[in-house]
Amino acid sequence: MKTRSLRWTTLAAALVLAGCAALPQPAAEALPVTPAMFKEAEGTRWTEAAPAEAQPRGQWWRAFGDPVLDDLVARADERNAGIAVAAARLRQARALVRSAASERAPQLDAGAGVVREAEPGARGRAATLTRLGADLSYEVDLFGRLARAQDAVALDAEAQAALLQSARLLVQAQVAQAYLALRATEAEQAIVQDTVRTYRDTLDLTERRQRAGDVAELEVARARAELAATEAEDHALSRRRVLLEHALAVLVGEPASQFALPPGPLPAALPGVPPGVPATVLARRPDVSAAIARLHAAQARVGVARSAWFPRIALTASGGVASPEVSDLFRWSARAWGVGALLALPIFDGGRRAAAVEAALGEFDAAVAGYREQVLVALREVEDELATLRLLAEQARAQSRAVAAAARATALSASRYRNGLVSQLELLDAQRSELRNRRLAVQLRGAQYASTVGLIRALGGGWDHGG
């Protein structure tokens, strides 16, 4: 008897140990090789930290010093459809966490019923039985199936929380980039409109000189063609501004027909990137945090699938009253009760449990690959934006010199043209060169703003300590 008892104890211990076996771990070669520092930010090291999807990102857009942008971001936070969808999915995920937690609690059901059935051996005789009672059940989570299932959905909720932060950060960045692009378009259009006025003055001067017999009609035609072409560019910029305004309307959750943004200046201050830009990109980026949570959730689901190989134990209890006569239903003699313990162990399932384990392992491998890809994308995006900002700054300095030289050339050509020392072609070439260089300078500034916002998003928020 002792030997048999020892065997059963050993078997139970083995099952418990098997149920608590270590979950699969990602292979070292499957994870990204993390560099010591950013290539484009010399001397800045980055650290791999715990997920920080709940960490505030701060009001980073205020660094641009534009109250209109501040208002647009606030409106987008409240009304943007993408943020609302992400928030709804987070609410759904948290409800699933509560549902999974309820599976680990005792389950109590109440019921009542009336059954009319034929009595055994009695011809044509039937009896009515009325029942009223309650059933109590509780599954003993001996092998951690329910606990791991709850862990998995809790990690899913963490991933959805991170995705909500990611959606909010994306919308904020899109609002900032669309707004700054709109202001850059307005600044570029102001240059074009100023050039239109200059071309009109040149056309007036050329027409006067033609009437005086100093120039031929060909020069008047050239001046008119240049004026018309520049006016066409002005209309194209107006179209671009309208489309950006409509895009902003969608981002802030308002109908484009009712959304209007008054003209305004391009923000004067371009936020500078400090030399010690934080390198905790793996902790700051919400999409990376979501990838980590998905990986851990897939890991937990492998444990859930493996636990299907082990017995399920449930404790049950029921109590109530039953009587063929409703009048006797609440008599003491009508009481009925029962307690029990149920053990279920599947013997043959045609490979269903093995397939479930393989599916869970496949999901885990996919989550590892997804995490690796997300980290590599994060690092690439930071390097891209750092490199872009560095090269744009160098290009802007060179372009500033080009603008100054072109403006000087235009002034000299205009003076010489008025005195009849140069041809109209030389003046128009100088004016076109100045227009092209001034517009390119504004476009470069707009690109610097867009890349700055892109770097903020790539880092998962602002670069100050609080986000």
TrEMBL record:
Keyword hit for Membrane: yes
Keyword Membrane listed: yes
UniProt-listed PROSITE patterns: PROKAR_LIPOPROTEIN
One term of GO molecular function: efflux transmembrane transporter activity
Coarse class of the protein's main subcellular location: membrane
Localization, UniProt: Cell membrane
Top-level taxonomic group: Bacteria
Leader sequence segment: 1-27
UniProt membrane topology term: Lipid-anchor
GO cellular component, one term: plasma membrane
Pfam families, per the entry: OEP (PF02321)
Keywords, in A-Z order: Lipoprotein, Membrane, Palmitate, Signal, Transmembrane, Transmembrane beta strand
Protein family membership: Belongs to the outer membrane factor (OMF) (TC 1.B.17) family.
Protein name, per record: RND transporter
Taxonomic lineage from the root: Bacteria, Pseudomonadati, Pseudomonadota, Betaproteobacteria, Burkholderiales
